[in-house]
Write a structure and sequence with these properties.
The complex is a heterodimer. Chain A is of the alpha/beta class. In chain A, 36% of the residues lie in helices and 22% in strands. In chain A, β7 (132-136), α5 (144-161) and β8 form a beta-alpha-beta unit. Classes of the chains: A alpha/beta, B mainly alpha.
Chain lengths: 217, 228
């Protein structure tokens, strides 16, 4: 899946300036980088939440599913929040079981904790059918057990549907566990990209090396 | 004082005709104006809360200014527009219930708009990101937003109704407080107190305070439910 060059400025300040990138279908591509490197902006542009500077920019003509950093819990039960994106009861049950949401099914979603809301939001997103799935720090609020369960669900979804997944994460370990490809952003620019192990073990650019050193890689 | 209150309670219990007429006019003016203000104000409030466009900030400031408009200024404006020297004199609406309702709509609508805008602008960005991220179209997103606003709309309505029923400046100027025609509770309290007839004034005051209590209890319950 080709993503055409993207540019975004806020109040005259450049926050993103990317060349054309390729997101392989049926695979997970991780986006790593420090705060303010443009990761979330990239996600919002691809999800259609914000518009790039280029007026004639064409988004890929695919269905896009996007989970923002802070997901919204609608004023209804946890189960209804999940069912609002698909009525397949068996799938709802499987997702709720995998993410340990069954005991919270009838609870008001607005009363869920941050981690529970993230689990509910992921289950809700995975009820849909998308060709491009964008996950923005989806597991940041989850404990390790939930994180691993969520990662498994995302991998399964990717394999079953053949969709391209763009995983924005601060966890190098998570990128290593899930992604085949990694994009490293710095100051709104794509500094380095490549196969996960290659980029994480033998980075070429100084910015990438410094970033990975900071994370103890 | 004590005997006046006793007489007032007796007057309420006896279903005095004049008292019932004042209550009827008050209900007609307050209910009509608050419902009309709600119908106009809620869509505008949602629009201002959800949309980002050039000039939005100016509109919000203008609305906040109108929220604080003194009722007598509103009354003066309508008086000048509809009196014998005004451009709308041929409509012959001065000292009618219709003009009282219109004046109250002008007073209350900014309050509805302002409260809805504040509530919606607080939840709209996160809601939009999430619902758009799920691939929902504008229609479904709007219905979801309405669902999120249900209690807020009800709460805003009660606020609008409370403002309408307690308002005196505008309705007395454009309605004239004419007995059996345009006299509402607040204007009647002023009128009867000036005449030294405290019994009817106290009776109306008790009813007004009771209504205020009911509105506040319902609002508290709504807020408790909203915070769940």
């Amino acid at each position: 899946m080709k993503i055409l060059p993207l540019k975004k400025t806020y109040a005259g300040k450049k926050v993103l300036d990317l060349p054309e990138i390729e997101l392989p279908e049926g695979q997970i591509t991780a986006v790593i980088g420090a705060n303010g490197s443009g990761k979330s902006t990239l996600a919002k542009l691809l999800a259609g939440i914000e518009r790039p500077d280029q007026k004639n920019w064409k988004a890929p003509e695919v269905s896009v599913g996007y989970m923002p950093q802070k997901s919204y819990a609608f004023r209804m039960s946890t189960a209804r929040n999940i069912a609002m994106n698909g009525a397949d009861l068996e799938r709802i049950g499987r997702l709720m079981k995998a993410l340990q949401l069954e005991p919270l099914a009838k609870q008001r979603a607005k009363k869920l904790s941050g981690g529970e809301t993230a689990r509910m939001a992921l289950a809700r997103l995975l009820m849909g059918s998308y060709e491009l799935l964008i996950l923005d720090e989806t597991t940041a609020a989850m404990d390790m057990e939930s994180t691993l369960a969520a990662e498994k669900l995302v991998q399964d979804y990717c394999q079953e549907t053949g969709c391209a997944v763009l995983l924005i994460t601060h966890s190098i370990q998570q990128a290593r566990r899930l992604a085949e490809h990694v994009l490293f952003l710095h100051g709104g620019e794509l500094v380095e990209e490549g196969r996960t192990e290659q980029l994480l073990t033998a980075p070429i650019r100084d910015e990438t090396k410094q970033f990975l050193e900071f994370y103890g890689v | 004082m004590g005997s006046s209150i006793q007489k007032a309670i007796a007057l309420i219990l006896s279903a005095d005709r004049e008292l019932l007429n004042i209550l009827g006019t008050t209900a007609r003016v307050s209910l009509s104006s608050s419902v009309i203000a709600l119908l106009i104000g809620v869509p505008i409030g949602i629009w201002l809360g959800t949309c980002r466009f050039h000039g939005r900030g100016t509109l919000v400031v203008i609305n906040r200014t109108l929220m604080g408009m003194p009722p007598v200024v509103c009354g003066l404006l309508f008086y000048m527009l509809f009196s014998g020297i005004g451009p709308f004199r041929h409509l012959k609406l001065l000292f009618t219930v219709k003009l009282m309702i219109l004046a109250q709509v002008v007073l209350i609508t900014p309050i509805v708009v302002g409260n809805m805008e504040t509530y919606v602008s607080d939840i709209a960005p996160a809601m939009r990101e999430t619902s758009k991220g799920l691939g929902f179209g504008p229609g479904k997103r709007f219905l979801l937003l309405l669902n999120e606003c249900v209690y807020s709309i009800f709460s805003v309505y009660l606020l609008a109704f409370a403002r309408a029923i307690a308002e005196v400046g505008a309705v007395s100027m454009v309605g004239g407080a004419i007995a059996w025609k345009t006299n509402v509770m607040t204007t009647a309290i002023m009128q009867y107190t000036n005449r030294g007839n405290f019994t009817l004034g106290i009776a109306l005051g008790l009813i007004l305070m009771s209504l205020s209590l009911v509105v506040n209890v319902v609002m508290s319950l709504m807020q408790r439910r909203m915070s769940r």
